[in-house]
Amino acid sequence: MLIVKVHVQNINDAAFTCDALILPVPEDNGAALCKDVDKPLGGLISSVIASGEFTGKHNETCLLHTADKIKPERVLLIGLGKRKNLTRDKLRQAGGKAVSYLINLKMKDLAVSTSVTSSPGHSPLSFIEGCLLADYGYMKYKKEENHKGLEKITLLTGEDLNEQLRWTETVVSASHLARDLVNAPSNEMTPSALVRVARSLKKASVKVIGRKEAEKLGMGAYVAVAKGSNEPPAFIVITYKGKNTKPVALVGKSITFDSGGISLKPSEGMEKMKYDMAGGAAVLGIIKAASEMKMPVHLIGILPAAENLPGGSASKPGDVVKALGGKSIEIISTDAEGRLAVADAIDYAKRFRPSAIIDIATLTGACSIALGHEAMAMMGNDEALMEKMKKASEETSERVWQMPIFEEYKDYIKSDIADMKNTSGRSGSLVSSACFLSEFAGDTPWIHLDIAGTAWTDKDRPYIPKGATGIGVRLLLNFLKQL
Fold first, then answer.
1. Run of H or E including 8
2. Are 94 and 80 in contact (CB under 8 A)?
3. Could you give the CA distance from residue 63 to residue 278 in angstroms, rounded to a whole number?
4. What average pLDDT does range 108-131 have in this prediction?
5. Same domain? 211 vs 295
């Protein structure tokens, strides 16, 4: 989905013609800060603030009609809360709330005042990022007249923000791509469809390993996941070389539909299991943005794509398979399929001698039990690398929360008949899944991000409409920018 183009103009707020001027207003001394618009409106803003109709509390809105007293037809006041408590994410949320409100009123041409958001320590681009992230809807199967997107946003400022704005637009566009891929129905978004998306990426080369070659290579864990489906699996390897250095390998779980296999999931909510390829969607979005911005990084993206269905040839609980690195795995649950696919992908990634491996996966229901829908779980074997991820998390508000991988967790995945088993049951299932993957990462610096609780939302959030969230794209692009 294309995002609306943001223009920059150095013009007075009251002199710019548009459907609506978005005016961010803090809770403290808001009327005084809006004087350039309030005065030609005859004190209208001061009046609504004095009456208590609008207080400036965070994400509070108030729409004013200007009656031709200024060029904008309307002014939308959006609350920022107290200035001392203002953060990047509160600006993002306010931008998202304002745009969502105006989209519902079918506004097409918006302008954003920067009189407050350009204050020391803050950038209006955080607000704009929220605006752009909120301007999203998966409309492919809806009638054309239902589309309510924007056509134009103008940032009213004298600052030179063009380079930073291009970064923001590219990152948001990548997030929208990931959302589109996850929102797409699973009869459309198959492993073969992911191959087509990968091959559409600019400045990236793509290798696809099919079922027979994967079997020949020894990817028994990955192949086991795909056995129950007639849909051909596709082990997708994408290379973007923006710099001649050791690569960072990004592994994205890409189960395009997960029924649970023989260990069948409950029917309630199963339609959402099209989102089980959200990790792979994030990797595609990241490489798209990196290539468009010509980022000086070397990336290997690996998407072990497959469907997990309970067909007649499906893997069964109790089966033993051998992974690419030679380890034997007892399959206790065919619904713990993600770690089988990701394990072989991590092993394959090590062939590139990467400086780091980051895997991102909707891996465990236990993640949402532990952290709700507010953070992704992070585990790994390199503290310095995880500190960089935490910093990226703080800047993007795509939150990570570090969980342990204690030595004792290895006992949880011991098998009586194989080197390991693919699940420990309910006890410690979040951390034991990461412990399982750590056996394949070995000594290579590695981070695991479990996005099972954050890749999908059942309710609208200020800048994330319900459905696919695109989680991980903004986080990992910021992380790569640090590197």
1. strand 6-9
2. yes
3. 37
4. 89
5. yes
Model pTM?
0.97
Please classify residue 384 by burial: count the beta carbons closer than 10 Å to its beta carbon, then call 0-12 exposed, 13-18 middle and 19+ buried: exposed
Whether 339 is a known active-site residue: answer yes
pLDDT score for 146: 56
151: containing domain: 6-160
3-class secondary structure, 73:
coil
Phi/psi at 297 (nearest 5 deg)? -135, 155
Residues 393 and 347 in one domain: yes
- Are 349 and 227 in contact, with CB atoms under 8 Å apart? no
Q: Are strands 74-79 and 61-65 parallel, antiparallel or unpaired?
A: antiparallel
Catalytic residue, chosen from 90, 179, 274, 339, is 339
Out of 71, 83, 265, 481, pick the active-site residue.
265
Judgement on whether residues 347 and 431 belong to the same structural domain of the protein = yes
**24 phi/psi in degrees, rounded to 5:** -70, 130
* Residue 72 dihedral angles phi and psi, to the nearest 5°: -60, 140
Average pLDDT, the chain: 96
- Whether residue 83 lies in the annotated active site: no
Q: How many domains does the chain have?
A: 2
Report the DSSP beta bridge partners of residue 309.
none
pLDDT score, position 118:
73
Residue 21, in any domain of the structure: yes
What residues form DSSP beta bridges with 402? 378
User: Concatenated DSSP letters for 327-367?
Assistant: -EEE-S-TT--HHHHHHHHHHHHGGG--SEEEEEE---HHH
Backbone conformation region of residue 261, classed left if phi is above 0, alpha if psi is from -120 to 50, else beta: left
